[in-house]
Amino acid sequence: MTLFVTALVTGLGLGAMYGLIALGFQITYSVCSRVNFAQGSMVMLGAVLGYVLTERAGLPVIVAYPLALVGCALMGMLVELLLVRPFAVRGSEAWLMATVAGGILLDNAVMFTFGNEPRSLPSPLVEQTWQIFGTGVYPQQLLIPLVAVGLAVSLHVLFRRTRQGRALLAVVQNPEAARLMGINTTAMISGSFALSAVLAGVAGLLIAPLLSVHSDMGTLFGIKAFAVAILGGMTSASGVMIAGFLYGLVEALVTTYLGSSYTYIVVFALLIAVLAVRPNGLFGTAALRKV
Amino acid sequence: MSESRLLDLSILALGVLALAFLGVVNGYMQFVFGLVAIWTILCTGLNVLFGLTGLVSLGQVGFFAVGAYAHAILSQAGVSFWLSLPAGALVAAAVGCVLAIPAVRMAGPFLAMVTIAFAFIVEHLAIEWRALTGGQNGLFGFDQPAIFGYVFTEADLIRLAIVLAALGLLAYRRLSVSGWGIAMAALRDQEVSAGSLGYDPFLTKLAAFAIAAGAAGLAGGLFASLMQFIAPSNFVLSQSILFLFAVILGGAGTVLGPLVGAAVAVLLPEFLAGLAEYRLLFFGALLVAVLLVAPRGIVGTIAAFLPRRAQPASAVTPEEALAFVSPETPEGLRVSGLGISFGGVKAVSGAAFEARPGEVTAIIGPNGAGKTTLLNMISGFYRPGEGRIETGGTDIAGWSMHATARQGIARTYQATRLFGSLSAEENVLAAFPRGRFSGVFTALGTAERRAMAQGLLQLVGYEGAAETLASDLPHVDRRLIEIARALAMRPRMLLLDEPAAGLMQGDKRAMSQVLRRLADAGIAVVLVEHDMELVMGISDRILAMDAGEPIAFDTPEAVRADARVIAAYLGEGTLSVPARSLAHEPGAMDTLIAKDLCAGYGAADVLQSVNLRVGKGELVALLGANGAGKSTFLRTVSGLMAPTSGHVILNDGYIGGLPPHQIVERGVVLVPEGRQVFPELSVAYNIELGAYRRKTRPDASELEAILQRFPRLRDRLHARAGLLSGGEQQMMAIARGLMASPKLLLLDEPSLGLSPGMVEELYAILAELRNDGITILLVDQMASLALAAADRGYILEQGRIVAAGSAQELLQDDALIAAYLGGGQERAEAAQ
Amino acid sequence: MPVRLNLTRRTVMAGAAALGLLSAVPAKAQEDPIKIGLVAALSGQSAKSGEAITRGIMLALDKINGEGGVLGRQLELVSRDDESNPGKGLVAARELVQREGVAALIGGLDTPVSLAIVPFANEAKVPFIGPWAAGTPITKNGAEENYVFRVSAVDEIVDEAITEYLVTKYGAKRPGMILINNPWGESNEKGLLKALEARGMEHAGIEKFESNDVDVVPQLTRLKENGADGLFMVANVAPSAQVVKSLDKMGWDVPIASHWGPAGGRFTELAGASGEKVHFIQTFLFTDPEHPLFVKLQEMFPEIETLADVTPATGIANAYDSVLLLAAAIEAAGSTDGPAIREAMYGISGVEGVIKTYDTPFTPDNQDALGPNDYLFSQFVDGQIIPLAD
Questions:
Q1: Are residues B482 and B386 in the same domain?
Q2: pTM for the predicted model, two decimal places
Q3: Which residues between 31 and 70 in chain B have a beta carbon less than 8 angstroms from any beta carbon of chain C?
Q4: How far from the centroid of its chain's Cα atoms is residue B286's Cα?
C-alpha cells in the first residue's frame, strides 16, 4: 500500500512534468508541424537560469523565476530563427538534426559557463515532508501536477479568451486563412517556440529542487517528453497531458514493482506496441488524404 | 564512359588506394581506417533507408548493437568468424523487419520516436541481460578470423572491412538503379504515385529497413572484432545521431556520400583530439553549419557542379510505342452504385458508368462535383463506402492502390505527382515493371526500356530533354511525362485527371489526338477534364456529375443538350439577382489596378501580363474556365503568392509582393475559395478574427450590423464554425471579411457547392453589399449569375484577359461561352 | 555565389586531407618531452572528478619539471576525454599510445572504462595507472604480464572496511545495500557479499537504482520492511543525494556507510542537512588550508578559494601520487620502454607522496599502492569534508 501510494505520487509528479514539456512539443507541432528537439535543453536552461539568478545573483524568486522563463522564451525564439526557419523555408526536414545539434551546443555551452558539478536549487517546499497514507511526500511533488494542470488549463482558456491566443488557434486550424486575416504567421510560429520553451523552463524549475541542477539534466526528460507527445498524438493538448500522466504512472509502477533497471525496456516496448496499434498515438487522428 | 561505370571504377580505386595506404601508416591510423570502413558499411545501409527511401531512423545504433552482440556471443561460443559475422548481420536484418512492421505505417516524428525507443530498448537489454551480454562491463576478446590456418592480424581484419565497405558501396550503386532502388526513390518522392505504379509500399519500406539493419549488423560484427571489446555504452542514442549526421554530411542519396560522411565523422574527432572537452561544442556547431550551408552534403554539392553524363539512347518510333502500349487483352471497367462519405457528408453517391476498351469516357461536372473522388476510388486511393468496380470479372472496389495498378489500371493526377528527384526518363522507367521489383542488382534502365521510355515521351508530345529532373520541369511537361509514365505500365485502363489543364490550344489538339490514338489502340481511357472542346471532340461517352451524383451518362451530343448539365455549368437561369438600386455611377476612382501582372508556380507563369482595374464602389466579375488563372490572380493580389513581374496598385500605393498581413492592413481582404473557416472556433470568434489587423477593436454594434446582414448566423453565433452548413460557412466567411472594413473585398467562388436556394440568398447579400458601396472583385464559375450582379467583367483564359466590358455586353459576348466551352484561345492569339 | 562557397569547401577539405596524411606519418623519435597520457571523463556528469585528476597531475608535473624532469626530459600531459564511455576510452588509449607515443597511461574514472583499457594496455605493454576507478578486477585482471597499477581505493577492500565500520560502530546485524545500477555497484555487490559472508552475516536485501531516479523510496521501503538496521550506499554524488532525500521523506533514520561517492561534489548542498549523517571512505583530505599542496593548488587554479571548492581531494591526491610513482619508475628504469618501467615499478621505494610515503608500493602480487590502512572515514560538516574522529 505504502509502495503503491509512493509510486502514485511520484508517477503523478513526473507525469505532470512530462506532460508539461510535451505540451511544448504539441504547441509548435500544431502550429507548424515542427518541434524543437532541444526541448530537453530548455528544461535545463530554466533550472540553470533559476539557480544562477537566485543563488548567484541573489534575486528573489518572484523576480528571478519570471526572468529565467523570459530567458527560455528568448532561447526558444532563437532556436526557431536559426535552426528551424532556415530549413522550413526550403521545405527541408533538416530542422530535426539542427535542433538536436542546438541542444548539444546549449548543453555544452552551459557546462562551460555554469560549471560541471551538480548544484541544488533550494525550495521551501522540499524542506519538510508531509505524511500521506503512511508515506512521506514533499509538498513540491504535489505542486508539480497542480502547476502543470493549472498551466495547461489556463493556456486552454487563454487561447480562447485572448485575441492573440485565438490568432494562434487560427494559425493551427487553417494557416492560409489565418494569413488572409492579416495574422503574421511567422511571428506566431516564433511565439509558439517561445511558449514551448517557457513550458519546458517551468518544468525545469519545478523538478530541479527534487533533483539537482546540471548541464545535462534535460536530455532524458526531453526524450521522454517527446515519447509522451507522440503517445498523446502530437495534436491534442488534453491528449498530451493525459499521456504524460499515463507515462509517469507506468514508469513509476514499473520502477517500484520491477526495479528501475527494467523501466526503459518496459516503457518503450509499451510505447512501440501502442503505436503499432494506433500509429497516430492514443488521441491523434489521421488527417484526410487528398490528391 | 557512363556515369555508373565511372562510379564503379572510383569505388574500386578508392578501395585499392585504402588497402595500399594501410601498409604505410602506423597502427593507430590503421585502426582509424578500419573504423571509417565500418562506418561506411553502416552509413551505406542507412543511405538506403534515409537517402533512397526517405525514412529517418534514429535507431541505427540498435541494429549496430544487435549485430555486434550476436557476432560476439556466437564467436565466444566457438562459432567460426565466417559464420558468426553473417549471422550477426542476418539477426540484425530480422530484427529490422520486425521493427519495420509497426514503423512503416508511420512518418515523421512518429517514426523517429519508434526508432529512438528501439535504440533505448536494445541498449538497456544489453545492460540487463547480463548472462548473455556481460552487462555494463561488456564482452572482451573475440577470436580473429582464420583462413586455412592463417590467423588474421588486426591489419588483415581492417583489409576485410575495407573490402566489405567497397562491396557495400558497389551494391548500393547497383541497387539504386534497380527496380528496388527506383521503387524506394519513388516512395520517397511521391508515396501516392509509387503506389499507383504498382509498388507495394509496405514491402519496399520493409526491404529498406532490412537492408539498413543488416548493414548496421554487419558493421557491428566487424566493430566487435576490431575493438575486441563491446559494451552497452558503445551503443548509446547519440551514436545514432552521428550516423545520420554522417549520411547527411556526405550527401544523402549519393553513392559516395556515406564514405565521405564516414571519413569526416571518424577523422574529425581525431583532429579535434587535442581540444578534448570542447569537442562536442565544436561538433554541434559544425553540424548546424553543414546543414545550413551544404544541405545536399559534400558529395551532393560537388556533384551539382559536375556535368551530368547522359548516355544517349535512341527513341523508338511513335508507332512502336503505340504498339507497345496496346493491351494484349483489352479490358473495360464497369462502375455501379459507387459512393463514399467523409465525416458523414456524402462526397459521391450512386456513381455508375462503363468505360469500354477502345473508347474515351469523359467525366465532367463543375468544381466539387466529386470527379476526382470518383477517380480516387477507382484507383484504390480511397476505399469506397459502397458499390462495385468491376474489371475482367473481378470486383476491385476497396483494393489497395498497388493491387489496383497491377490489375492494369494506371492514372495521372490533377496536381502532377512525378518523382521530383528522378529524370523525365527515369520517371517513365519506374513504371515498366508494374511494381514487380525484379533483380536487386539488375539495372532497370536496359537499352530497350530506355528506348521505349523515350519513345513514350515523344508519343505524348514531350519535347524536352529526357535527363532533366522532373522537379525542374515546367508544369505542362510534367503532365505529359505523367501520362507517358502511366503508359509505361501498359495499362488496360488509363485514368486521366485534367490532362489538358494549362496546355496551349495547339498542345491541347495534339493531346486529344494522342488520347484518341491510345483509345484506338485498345485502352479504355477515362478522362476528367474541364476543357469542353477537348471533351466533346474525343469522347465516346460522357458522365456528367453534379454535387456528388451522376446527372447524365450518354454521348457527347446528348450530354451537351442536357438541361441539367447546362444548369450545373452556367448556373440555373431561374436564379435572380437584384439589380443596382441606386442609379449612381460607380468606378470613377480606381481602387485596384493590376498592371502587366505575371505570377505562377515554379517554372511557368500562370498569369501572363494581366491588366485589370476595379473602380471604387464597383462590383467587378472575373470569369473564366477552370485553370484559367482566376484564383491565382486573387492569391497574387492578396499576397499569398508573389508576382513574378508587373505591379499591383491599391489606391495609388504599390502592394505587389508585400506579405499578406501587410496587404490586409492596407485594406484588401480575400474571402477564399472553399470558405476556409477556423473549424474549432465559434462563429463569433471567427468573425472577430476578421478584424485582427484593424486599429480599432470591433464593438457590439458592429457585430449587430453584421448579424443583420447575415441573419442566418445569429442562431449559430456560439456554435463551432466547423459544424455549420456550407452556405452558413460561406456567409460567415464573407462576414469575417467585412469585419476588416475592407477597401476591396475579393470573393473566390462564393457559390461553390451551395444549393440553388442558398446561392440565391448569397447573391442577394452580395447585391446589398454592392448597393452599400463596397468595392468587390468577384470570381464565380456561375458566370451568368456573377454578371447579373456585376457592373463590369473580365474574361480570363490561359492566364490572359481575352475580353472585358460591362456586364451586359459580356452576357451577349460569345467569348464567355467560348471560355467555358473552349475555342477562345484563337481570339486571344489573334488579338496579340 | 555557390561557386565561391564550393571553392572554400574544397579548400577546407583539401586541408583536412593534407592534415590526415601528415598525421598518418609515424612520429620521428626526438628529444621531446616524455608524454603521459590521460584518459578520463572531462565532460558530462563525472567531469568534476576528471578535473580533479587533471589538477593532481598538473601539480605533480609542475613539481617534477621544476626539479629538472625525468631522465633529463620534461614530462608532458596529453589528455583525452572518454565521456565515461568505455569504447571511447579504449579508442582514446589506442590513440595516445599508437599515435602520440605516450610512455604511460593514467586514467579511468569509471570502472567500465578502465576495464576496457586493461587488455589493450597489457597487450601494448604500456603501464596504465589508475588514480580513481576502484573496481577490483582492474588490477586483478589475470594477465601474465600485468601492466595495470593503481593508486586508489579498491572496492573489495573498501567493502571490507565499511562492513567492519557498520558492524563495530553501529552494531549492525542485518544491513541492506542500496547500489547504483552500474558496474561499480555490481563490483561492490560482490565485495559486500564477500565481507558479510566472512562474518556469517545476513543482509536485508540488495536494491539497485538509476542515477536519474527522482525517488528511491520504493527500494528503501523494501529494505526497511526487511528489517535493515544499517545501509551500505554505493553511488556518485548526485544519486547518493537522492538516496538521502528519500530517507528523509520516509523519516527513516538509519546509519549509512558509503563508498566515496559523496566526496565527488557538494553533497550536503544536494542532499540537505541529513547528508552529514552519511559516513564515507576517503584516501586523502585537505584539512588544513596551509597544507603545502593546497597552497600550490590555489596558486595554479585561482578559482579555488576555500577547502570546500576541492571536494574530490581524493582525485587530486591519487593522481598526484600516481605521477610521482610513475616518474620514479621511469627514472629507475632509465628508459620510457613499457616493460622496463613495469619492472622498475616493483623496485621503487621511499617515494614521498601526499597520501603517504610509498615503500615498495607494488609487487607482482599486489599492484595496488593503497591498502586498508590508508582509508579514513569522513563526513560532511558545513559543506566541507572532515575526517571522523575514531
A1: yes
A2: 0.88
A3: 31, 35
A4: 31
